[in-house]
UniProtKB/TrEMBL annotation:
Residues 107-127 are annotated as: Disordered. This is ECF subfamily RNA polymerase sigma-24 subunit. The lineage of its organism: Bacteria, Pseudomonadati, Myxococcota, Polyangia, Polyangiales. It comes from Sorangium cellulosum (Polyangium cellulosum). Pfam families: Sigma70_r2, Sigma70_r4_2. Keywords: DNA-binding, Sigma factor, Transcription, Transcription regulation.
Length: 211
């Protein structure tokens, strides 16, 4: 039986087999995953040399999640979807490992993802003159609050996250863990929210300004 002939039930049964049948099913699934990754990552040239490693990482995740397969799609479709998610996440982590945290947190205190000024995504919008004024005031206030209100560690985390660095990589570069980074971000956001409210900008006003 080939990978294309296996039913969903056969995949689950064979992959759980501790003997030769399980080894064959895993080999065929891995080949299926490798082909899918070559197609799915064709526009990511940096991925071509990593396909085998990505396939192995994907296999481990798929085998660990066999119990969660619900037959809402074909098993092969489900497995390929997991492999693509695993691979994109791994490529994203690999990219950010090459970006020092200091490079993201240097310079202007508040910028948006992509290392551009935070105001840039809003400058060419269809905002009314009143909204444009409110946006500039809010962004100026946020910049001052990031510089003056947050702790140094909170500033590092918030600015890195604004620029798109995943929390896992922030934690790795700071020698911390994701839960601690999440709490730092949560506390920092609350501090910024309080500063906005004290300056007269309610949550509703902020939403109106950036809608």
């Amino acid at each position: 039986m080939t990978a294309f002939e296996r039913t969903d039930a056969a995949w689950l049964l064979d992959l759980r087999d501790p003997g030769p049948k399980g080894a064959l099913a895993q080999r065929e699934l891995r080949e299926l995953i490798v082909r899918a990754l070559h197609r799915g990552l064709a526009r990511r040239p940096e991925a071509s040399a990593l396909i085998e490693d990505l396939a192995q990482e994907s296999m481990l995740r798929i085998l660990a999640k066999l119990h969660s397969f619900r037959e809402e799609s074909r098993f092969s479709t489900w497995a390929i979807a997991i492999a693509l998610r695993v691979s994109f996440s791994a490529l994203r982590r690999r990219h950010w490992r090459d970006v020092p945290l200091d490079a993201l947190t240097a310079g202007s205190p508040v910028e948006a993802p992509g290392a551009s000024g935070m105001s840039e995504p809003f400058e060419d919008s269809s905002a009314t003159p009143e909204q444009a004024i409110a946006r500039r005031e809010i962004l100026t206030l946020l910049q001052r609050c990031v510089a003056e209100t947050l702790t140094e560690r909170q500033r590092q985390v918030v600015l890195a996250e604004l620029r798109g660095m995943p929390q896992e990589e922030i934690a790795a570069q700071l020698g911390s863990n994701r839960n601690a980074i999440y709490k730092l971000c949560h506390d920092a956001r609350r501090s910024l929210q309080r500063a906005l409210e004290q300056a007269g900008y309610s949550a509703e006003t902020v939403r109106w300004a950036f809608e």
